[in-house]
Amino acid sequence: MTDKPLISAFDREMMHKCLQLAQRAAGQTSPNPLVGSVVVKDGVIIGSGFHPGVGQPHAEVFALQDAQDAQGATVYVNLEPCNHYGRTPPCSDALIRAQVAKVVTGMVDPDPRVAGGGIKKLRDAGIEVVVGVEETACRQLNEAFVHRILHQQPFGILKYAMTLDGKIATTTGHSAWVTSKASRHLVHQLRSTCDAVIIGGNTVRQDNPSLTSHGLSEHNPLRVVMSRSLDLPADCNLWQDRLAETLIFTENNDSRQQQILLSKKTNIITVAALTPKTVMEHLYQRGISKVLWECGGRLAAKAIADGTIQKVMTFIAPKIIGGTDAPSPVGDLGLNLMTEALPLKQITTKVIDSDILIEGYLES
């Protein structure tokens, strides 16, 4: 599986079609991966499909059904076809029954239940299998799924917007708006691909956010609030709009305070010690893969220190606000030397209107 045969421009084009199909279900498949598939015969696409969500057939099954007759065809899929019974039967068996001639896949499935087993089953059945077409793009699409499988923890993204002098708000706490409308639009798109978004109680009090995709998608992430004291406003967008479920984690087991918030149709989980790691463990058990942290600097520092942040997305606006007490995006990490600073890898930059977006990954 490590030897890669010659890969044609057509193979790459078809794999990108698979990725585009898979992206249609962004935010809706966890804990399953995003998968798209196309069936090609004589250089023409005769079938396509994607995995829409847990319990639904996988992408290959939809693509084969769409093709109707896939005998002798080539099937493209961005993730190795499964070979085990889960909520649905093995996709490898469906491909064998359809008598396809060739399967081209983007990457090996990291799930130990598969991990090359699907490829082996196909090859044992006499089907030619090509592995590794546009593998980098395939891995990036499912980076949250891969991280969840390998580390038994959701994939955490820390997103923040700051001025050119590194402030996320003024000295009074006012933060609307740091960045441009185009940048905020991109954040709404990002939320639509996430399973959950996390903030602290102070963000609820200061910003009164909605934490939705603002109509860009039917999918809105689970909204998670971390509040030790439950000192939260009785009226705020999170429990007014009903657009998404809101879950509050707290250490406060005062039944009266909890009852007030429960009457707002929220859900509350009381824990002995409220930490980012504890919250992420609960979210993992709920089947969540991709989590967006939109919190203030103090909670962001704790999330980084707890190892719950894998990716950082920084929006920088060409503004200077000043203020020695104005908040910064990341609080105290206990680092005293510049040589101790946490480096990011795989850096990308993008200009969005007048802003700059810098993305990178924290060293594990």
Description:
The chain has 364 residues and is an alpha/beta fold. The strands form two sheets. Strands 10-9-8-7-11-6-12-14-13 form a nine-stranded mixed β-sheet. The mean pLDDT is 93. The longest helix has 15 residues, at 9-23. 44% of the residues are buried. The two termini are 27 Å apart. It has helices at 9-23, 59-67, 91-97, 117-124, 135-141, 143-151, 181-192, 201-207, 255-262, 276-285, 297-305, and strands at 36-41, 44-50, 74-77, 102-105, 128-131, 155-163, 196-200, 222-226, 246-250, 267-270, 290-293, 311-317, 344-352, 355-362. Helix 3 runs parallel beside helix 4 (117-124). The protein is elongated, with a radius of gyration of 23 Å. It is built from eleven helices and 14 strands. 28% of the residues lie in helices and 22% in strands.
What brief labels describe this structure?
single chain, 364 residues, alpha/beta, 11 helices
The H-and-E topology, N to C, reads as HEEHEHEHEHHEHEHEEHEHEHEEE
Task: Give start-end ranges of low-pLDDT stretches.
Answer: none
Largest sheet: 9 strands, mixed
Structural class: alpha/beta
Mean pLDDT over the residues: 93
**Overall radius of gyration:** 23 Å
Distance separating the two termini: 27 Å
Strand order, main sheet: write it out: 10-9-8-7-11-6-12-14-13
